[in-house]
Design goal:
- With 695 residues, the protein is of the alpha+beta class.
- Among the domains are: 93 residues, no CATH class; 260 residues, Rossmann fold (3-Layer(aba) Sandwich), CATH 3.40.50.
- It contains twelve helices and 37 strands.
- The strands form eight sheets. Strands 30-31-33-32-34-35-36-37 form an eight-stranded mixed β-sheet, sandwiched between helices. Strands 13, 14, 15, 16 and 17 form a five-stranded antiparallel β-sheet that branches. It has a four-stranded antiparallel β-sheet with strand order 1-2-3-4, with no helix packed on it.
- α6 packs across α7.
Length: 695
Amino acid sequence: MTGLAFGTWPSPVTAELVAAGGTRFGDLATRTTDDGVEIWWLESRPSEAGRGVLVVQRPGREPADQLDAPWSVRTQVHEYGGGSFWLGARYVYFAHWSDQRLYRFDPLRPDESTPQPLTTEPPTERGWRYADGVEHPDGTAVVCVREDHTHGGGDDDGHVEPRNELVTVPADGGDVTVLVSGPDFVSSPRISPDGRWLSWIQWEHPNMPWDQTTLCAAPLFGGNGTGGTSRPPSSLRVGNAQVVASGAAIQGANWTSDGRLVYSTDQSGFWNLAWWTPAGAGRLTSLQYAEIGHPPWLFGTQHWAELSHGRLGVIVTSDATDSLAVVDRDGTIHPVPHTDAPDPEHAHQIAGPLSVAAIAPGPDGTATTLVASATSLTAVASVEVDSGQWRIHRPPDPIEASWPAKADDDVGLAGWFSAPEPVWFDSGDHDTHCFFYPPSGPTSVVGEPDGPPPLVVMGHGGPTSHAIPALNLKIQYWTSRGFAVADVNYGGSSGFGRTYRRRLNGRWGVVDVEDCIAAADHLARLGKVDGDRMVIRGGSAGGLTVLNALITSDRFAAGTSLYGVADLTALARDTHKFELRYVDNMVGPYPEAADIYRERSPINNVDGLSAPMLVMQGLEDKIVPPSQSEAIVAALAAKNIPHAYVEFEGEQHGFRQAVNIVRSLEAELWFYGRVLVFDPADEIQPPTGAVGLSP
């Protein structure tokens, strides 16, 4: 059978199906009740315009949503959020998206199931934002992060940064009291089981939390007599702080039931576990070429959890792929056996390479996780750590049900999926990693290939993030239409240790570009892809990579920038506090390195642009403002370069609404069809405002 042209395959992985499987999971937590262990998590659902839905599974019951619309559990602290809810012995505490106030409710008492505000309305809209909290052991108060946008002042350049502080709030509402103030950033307030110690992590500009942080602990006084004081209930205060660990990127600090403060540190070059008590300290693990930790872009990032008998369940990352293990009290590590999940009802196998986003103690000593695999979207699942047997609590989004299968189809949706192949390749003075996905479709439908396929090179955001090998429908959207995909872990990516992660320091806009080009060249030399039919796409920091790749080389026939960085100088002057000084390490201190900023900024090098471009942007983006995309689009228009610009009202940094996910994917497919000269099988309405891209 003669093969259909690449790009024209009639894929069942539609844009609507991608949106249907686009639920984002976060903030996994568990608590023990008289009935057993409850499992709580957060779902951001495209079908509900990205609303943050709080879900619980109680023992013996099906998962159930807890708060109806318009309640949306999501914090705006650091803009990226995370740590949007936490569990007390009785109450559930959360930040509500629309006003960012702190609320509580009792899910088991009808008279208290309607959320009640614990904090007052701020003097400015969303002026006080709350995240990443913990309830005091006696239940009288919570301690959490507050980002205060209400104060005046500013530095010599006119920047008015919000204050990031640790505060305490009475559990029944009342005055907010500041406990820790002064550092540029604070996170991870955690209270020891006896209520006598408060720990937290802090860091200063220009560091990011994966560069260098300090772990502190201080005596905690207050509550109902804990901490050796008779102060009134819920009136908490801290004593003199002491430094537990510093000089490295400390993260994931929390207390165990026996009073140890356990945390991850990359002092050895890889994130490993260590512990501290007021009486001593020590190291738990000594992994090499693997680590227990991940850049904490979001609050509440946790890669270990206390299980039973003093054992810790941990997520181990090596070469951007995760596995699970158990760490004994003496530091001995036991890998969790890899066993398929016995759950054919949901067509879910936890098989192949894994990506594990969070871990918490589960029922009967198990480890509960947010886990995805090469064959599955994210599920909430528990694993029995000695046998490796899995139990699915919340199965992946039911994409099979969304697939309009034909009566005579014997392939199934999974027959269209491409499996990731890890590839290492030479890129100048270092080796670089990517996941390669060949095009995949049943021969009975698409026929035999005629030559190598076109290639989509993907550059992830961050840039301190990494591509993962888990099933990604946005990748399968391309491979099931006849494209190959290279998901590149360029220098600067996490998941490979500190040295690899720091390759981008001072070289952002150079190393990432060189590595993406090297990936394309390597795959072309192997004959896996058509070297004359390559495109590059990326979002946020990946958008900068796209723009600079098109400016500095002619390797790619076109590029797509999604809310991408076009002007590093503007980014240094006009972004949110969390990333305001990020570029100091990635490029150089500003304004001392202003020349480098101008040199690396695509907007200052538009003379090198000649390839067609698609630019897409959320109009409420506070991280990379729309002005960045508007500037590059104006430059494309001035040079009469074929391009299209698609704006999304109501979207921020990334697209959360189903209708916009569909629109963005179809616009991109239409764009590549115009550039690479093929007609997609999909019926697509061309984006408005396209210039020089006639059908």
